[in-house]
């Protein structure tokens, strides 16, 4: 009887151990711990390309005032910085020798005409041959040409403004001997400013004649100068792959000066595109992947990407609008991983 009781007591621990083993779950079962991640929804966004081009301002019309003949500067008829109108007198050169040459040419012309007219009346009586009469006529024509040449030389001693504009600094003094290489002053029409700048060839479909532009200068902080495109170069630079564009900007207060640098902003609307946050991209070799979250499980999906913009990547294939991708925690997940989304990342 004692032996039976001790045998019974020995079975109790064994039953307890057996029960505990049945209730303990197996560590190798299908139960998985959800990986905490943050996801973002793929959305369509408007894509606008914007570039800034650096342009150089120039006067609408600009010339160096130079004489067409060599002579002595007789008179300066302008003040530095003065606004002059087209046709206004600017400079007179010494012309006494030219005036004397003109008088001599006119006298020779008058004499040759008189001889020709007398001889022409004799031609009807055949007192003078036709060949001699032709020679006298040729002499008249030569003298007429000499008079015209002398008049042109005299006109060249007077320099007038070819267009309305503002006079620059005077570089010579009255009495100076000047020639065709001497710059007396400058004349600029700055009521309108030309602004030349270059844009990449990819913007050729964007830039067009009549397009409105706005420019800024570091000289005038916060001020914008509005203008429009007037012409586009017919050639693309083979080195820079850029094309030169010319625009005009009204400048009634003469704030802009020829030679100033200005920045021009150009925008190109590319419509709506799919974008994903840059941190959602998982590169593997030459391929790009994202982890798409669906019903608490992730799917590793290969995607095709386009251009990169700050913080985002344009996706051209592999995902659709409205799907969610893992943006934080992608290094911890694999294909089929169970996830817990801790929050939404706003794109």
By DSSP (H or I, 4+ residues per run), the number of helices equals 3
- Give average pLDDT, whole number: 85
Kindly report the spatial arrangement of strands forming the biggest sheet.
2-9-12-11-10-13
Net shape = elongated
What is the helix content?
A: 10-25%
Give the ordered list of helices and strands.
HEEEEEHHEEEEEEEEEEEEEE
Biggest β-sheet strands, sense, barrel: 6 strands, antiparallel, barrel
CATH class of the domain at 35-46 and 272-344: Mainly Beta
How much of the sequence is in beta strands? 35-45%
Second-tier CATH architecture of the domain at 35-46 and 272-344: Beta Barrel
**Structure summary, number of beta strands:** 19
* Uncertain residue ranges: 1-31
Rg (CA only): 46 Å
SS content category: alpha+beta
N- to C-terminal separation?
Answer: 81 Å
CATH topology of the domain at 35-46 and 272-344: conserved putative lor/sdh protein from methanococcus maripaludis s2 fold
Fold topology:
Elements: H1 2-23, E1 35-41, E2 43-65, E3 71-76, E4 83-84, E5 89-93, H2 96-122, H3 130-155, E6 158-160, E7 165-167, E8 177-178, E9 185-200, E10 212-216, E11 224-236, E12 242-250, E13 261-277, E14 282-284, E15 287-294, E16 297-309, E17 312-317, E18 324-328, E19 339-344
Parallel strand pairs: 1-19
Antiparallel strand pairs: 1-18, 2-9, 2-13, 3-5, 3-8, 4-7, 5-6, 7-9, 9-12, 10-11, 10-13, 11-12, 13-17, 14-15, 15-16, 15-18, 16-17
